[in-house]
Amino acid sequence: MAFDTIIRGGTVATASDTFACDIGIRDGRIAALGTQLGEAKEIVDARGKLVLPGGIDSHVHIAQPSGPGIVMADDFASATRSAAFGGNTMVLPFAMQQKGESLREVVTAYHKKADGHCYIDVSFHLIIADASDAVLGQELPALVHDGYTSFKVFMTYEGLALSDLEMLNVMSVARETGALVMVHAENYDAIRFLTDRLERAGKTAPRYHAASRPVPVEREATHRAISLAELIDVPVMIVHVSNGAAMEEIRRAQQRGLKVYGETCPQYLVLTEKDLEGLNMEGAKYVCSPPPRDAASQRACWQGLEQGVFSVFSSDHCPFRYDDPQGKLAPKGRTSFRWVPNGIPGVETRLPILFSEGVAKGRITLNRFVALSATNHARMYGLYPRKGTIAVGSDADLAIWDPQRKGTITQALMHGGSDYTPYEGIAVTGWPVSTMVRGRFVVRDGALVGREDAGAYVPRALSEMARPAHGSVSG
Ligand code: URP
Ligand code: ZN
Ligand code: ZN
After folding, report:
1. Ligand 1 within 6 A of 284 CB?
2. Ligand 1 within 6 A of CB of 91
3. CATH of the domain at 363
4. From ligand 3's centre to the CA of 238, what distance in Å?
5. What whole-number distance in Å separates Cα of residue 308 and Cα of residue 320?
6. Nearest in space to 290 (alpha carbons), one of 343, 335, 254
7. Which of 38, 101, 157, 378 is most buried when burial is the number of CB atoms within 10 A of its CB?
């Protein structure tokens, strides 16, 4: 038999082309593209469907320590199951260091949580919270060498925020090793100042979370992160950009020829700070950082996606249960927005939202959708061309979409560990009906058929964007 599987009759799209063709799969890889491919053990009928590279969500938080008494809603099994239902074939969660911890031990601990418990493939970014000499001089370079080729630094959050000096030191290691630095850009001191002032005025409800981190807090930190990266001459990815002012900082840097990349997320396209105004504690469901903003910010984020300022669209999935004393309604969180755990679920809804609001409504092409949802993530994070495209030799990581299917996002349809979706009630056109990882279905026609141990850990090469003179992310 020539192939294990042939996916027949679908419309295939990559980041650059859309064409009618069949896909022949052998040993987990794409072995042929064309028509009349011959025999296979199994023929999958994809007529009337789109066959796209499986989504890669390069910004998710899974089973991450989140403070005393707070528990994240997803372990690796539930997060990767939910991701698969959302058309994803790979996620990149963070292995988060806390102060005083060995980075190597942190990575070992995350592997223990993940290995054998993933429905789809995974790879880890690092989070550097303790920029000690041992971490920067030994552990980090060794881990980059071992395939952990990107790391995130925070300019805010108690226990995580790095000083400018520490950022410069971390960026220097990135320059020496070729790793890619991801930056959470918000000004920590400004947030502390504004939070204290709001609390003194009795403004403690979830809605004041947005007031404690207004646009200038993000714009200033974005500008500073770019300036620090420019000093070191190192590429940088500004993650979860929420508004036009921060987006324009990135655009200006790109226009000056700097290797500055940007990411935005669904919450900045379809939510606003008004969502934080729910009765009682309902607003806590939308507490994430940076916060959702206003309609003008949403338009700016769309512009960033359409015009190529943002090269990746990720979920920043960071799920907590709402009605749970270990989640959004943690006892301390009820006393002030300051203590509400930051983050919202979104790994399952990222792609339906981008497809519906973007492709179905004519804001972006199908090829741009593929670039933003898969290909650019693979290129940015050292996975291309094994992942993120449909080409002979690539892993058969595919999502089959029904582009006409209409539905409404609601918690009852979700497959993760949270008890709510912040996107409840949003009408969508287009839905991923099947997801296949390395030639095996994980979700088939809306049903889970994959196994919890089927996902593999994938070590990564250096980012194409951090290596000089190698390819480029499309627009
Ligand atoms: O509120 C958010 N975004 N939580 C997740 C952690 C982060 O900063 O990405
Ligand atoms: Zn962040
Ligand atoms: Zn995040």
Report:
1. no
2. no
3. 3.20.20.140
4. 11
5. 32
6. 343
7. 378
- Residues 353, 357: Cα–Cα separation, whole Å: 6
What b-and-e string marks burial along 357-369, b requiring 16 or more CB atoms within 10 Å of the CB?
Answer: bbbbeebbebbbb
Calculate the alpha carbon distances from 277 to 163, 283, 428 in Å. Answer: 33, 5, 24
Cα-to-centroid distance, 96 and ligand 3 (Å): 11
Phi, psi for residue 337 in degrees, rounded to 5: -55, -25
Structural domain harbouring 163:
1-475
Of 227, 271, 264, whose CA–CA distance to 249 is shortest? 227
Helix (H, G, I), strand (E, B) or coil at 171: helix
| Residues paired with residue 333 on neighbouring β-strands, in sequence order | none
Strands 88-96 and 121-122: parallel
Span 392-449, pLDDT tens digits = 999 999 999 999 999 999 999 999 999 999 999 999 999 999 999 999 999 999 999 9
The CA 163 to ligand 1 mean position distance, Å, reads 19
Q: Is the CB of 187 under 6 A from ligand 1?
A: no
pTM: 0.97
| Residue listed under structure tokens 């069949």 | 22
pLDDT tens readout for residues 210-224:
999 999 999 999 999
Q: How many domains does the chain have?
A: 1
String of DSSP letters for 326-388: TTTT-GGGGT-GGGSPP-B--TTTHHHHHIIIIIITTSS-HHHHHIIIIIHHHHHTT-TTTSS
Whether residue 332 is predicted with pLDDT greater than 50 in this model: the reply is yes
Task: Return the closest-CA partner of residue 191 out of 174, 175, 208, 207.
Answer: 208
Q: Is 37 exposed, middle or buried (0-12, 13-18, 19+ CB in 10 A)?
A: buried
